[in-house]
Design goal:
The structure is a homodimer of 258-residue chains. The first copy, chain A, has 11 helices and 5 strands. Chain A has a 5-stranded parallel beta sheet, with helices on both faces. In chain A, α5 packs parallel to α7. The relative contact order of chain A is 0.14. The interface between A and B is large, with 78 and 78 residues.
Amino acid sequence: MMMQAGHRRPLFVLYGASMVEYAFRPEGWGAALTNMYSRQADVLLRGYKGWNTRRALEALETIFPKNSPIPPSLVVIFFGTNDAAFPLPSGRGQYVPILEYKDNLRHICSYMMGLSDTTRVILIAPPPIFEEARRTVARVRFGEKAAEYLDRTNERTRAYAEACISVAQEMGAGVVNLWSAIQKKSNWQTECLSDGMHLSAEGGKILLEELLTVIKSENWVPSLIAEHMRSDFTEPSPYDMIHPYLEAAQSCNETALL
Amino acid sequence: MMMQAGHRRPLFVLYGASMVEYAFRPEGWGAALTNMYSRQADVLLRGYKGWNTRRALEALETIFPKNSPIPPSLVVIFFGTNDAAFPLPSGRGQYVPILEYKDNLRHICSYMMGLSDTTRVILIAPPPIFEEARRTVARVRFGEKAAEYLDRTNERTRAYAEACISVAQEMGAGVVNLWSAIQKKSNWQTECLSDGMHLSAEGGKILLEELLTVIKSENWVPSLIAEHMRSDFTEPSPYDMIHPYLEAAQSCNETALL
């Protein structure tokens, strides 16, 4: 709706797990992106906490039907932290083997790129893990003994981050190496992550900055750069704000000219 | 797009002036609404700072074309602060006479209600004005003498707020009396407004609370209440998160049962 004729806006879709689902919490990166493109693009949230790339792949056609009248101009894909969880003996849980993770990402990427000739894709590699905080979370949620078990490690996540980057390069998608970007920040463990895994407001800021860097990079897509995009209704209007003081000052000047 | 078949989501549209355009700034009420309905509804931003109801009316069919494949389920309409500005001798500027303001709101309301049989409308009455802060803003922006000129007063704005409420009642739309709601708060002048006019984070919180109160009121529309709405993909999955400690504890129990 509302995207016809002269005032159809490009559509940006954020597809991912909890770090997308939570992207509109206070100071969230999704909200900030929406604000930045407030008169230029629509941002839709397709975030599903807990999801790995298996679920993301299974739900793909349901969430993103083919031949939609308004295909997205940009899809941001952000999965990996859950895929990188440790495998469990039962075979249940979030873990996805790294080769399958890559394959799933490839399929998702290629599907999104097929939605229209102009749909662009950016992959976000998972952020680093602060293991000590993961143990604390386990202790608080499940009791003292649970702290002996790690659900994921920073090294495992690095491997998934690298896998994500290599898929993006192979597929010609943009990519944000969030695993590295966050670790450049001092005290990233507590400044950029809220529970050793999810992004704090500061972590979200880094993600947004990196995302904009990709969008603005020279070999990417100029039509998605806010500064180059048409803003809705920017023409001057007789109803534009004018302060009573300015009006009075102007009529004095006009009188002086008589 | 992405709103077909089983996973089509209701669409909420926020249509208004700056207090809508800014609704996705940090701690903004639009972002909070999006977060609240994160797996249930899509929220689109149609905010145009400085607009009065004349511009809102003129742009109506461009922004909200008829026979759209996805008409909104809810439209939040938030104009009035600019209409209530003082008239200027030149006839330029934001001011709209109160009777015309009512008439414009009636037209906008009725147009939105005609977008589909199920489109519901909520009008937001303008928030109060803290005049001292308006003078300060004028001084800072235009110099000492400008502080002698007020661009709008709280009493004028009250009249427009009442006009808005009466139109909503007449048209069967929901309504938020933001002018009153904010003034119930102690130190509303500085707590709830950022510059004597726009909403602070606290002011946005009050707006959101009042909006949810309307949505949840008994004679309104149950299908728009988050607690009653279907959330996307809530069925259990073999890939749901399970902590390694729980897995280990469970396999111990199973062993004990053998």
